[in-house]
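for the writeup, i need someone to sanity check this before i put it in the appendix. the sequnce is what the collaborator sent (i think, or maybe the updated version? ugh). structure was predicted straight from it, no edits. if anything looks off just tell me and ill rerun, i have time this weekend
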Amino acid sequence: MSEAGERLFEELMRFRPEALTANGWAVKAGVARTIWSDLRRHGNPSRRTLEKLLGAAGMTLAEFEALRVGHSPREEASDGLAEPGRGWRGAALASIPLFEAQLSGEWCEAGSGIAQHEIDRFRSVGKVDRPAALAADHDAYAVRMAGEAMWPRFRPGRRLLVSPAAAMAVGDDVLVELVAGGALIKELAGRSAKTVQLRQFNPDASIEMDVRDVLTIHKIIGEAL
């Protein structure tokens, strides 16, 4: 067995269509069912074979390369992923738009201390590099943090990566767009069918809002490098 082939097999299986067996996936892709034994033994499938398999799973070769666990395109050039005699690297990831998050006062009422922002998502002020974690999220964007409401987690001026597609859990940082306009950059403290609970750190304050006042909630996955 090839170590590289075993690793590639395991990573491909992460993206196998749920309704299909491995052999069923191969048939749908139009490749021989022996692909899996050949892959594990030799670890050198052709680029075309990979494109067919991944296409049947609803993704591109570039997206798969970006999401591979613990590997970079440079490493794969010597991993037997390309056809013999051909160096292969995944396509460079497209950059994502950067927007300004400007302070626009306080949420709810004066004196609340809850910082609110205005974000014009129709006017990009620049681009940031797209990390591999956002390779398949075509709606991902970044915002430049304003104010110190989330200090020390996020400093003013830092560029925050936002993913509309990412699943959220209590404790995650989020960007909440409001029906009435404006946005809140906070920590998700709780969520129910009727309310959303948020927290900011400076000053430390908690918010409970009606879900009818919320337009969207997007997860902040970290800071752009």
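The two ends are 39 Å apart (CA to CA). The chain has two domains: 3-76, 96-223.
thx in advance!!
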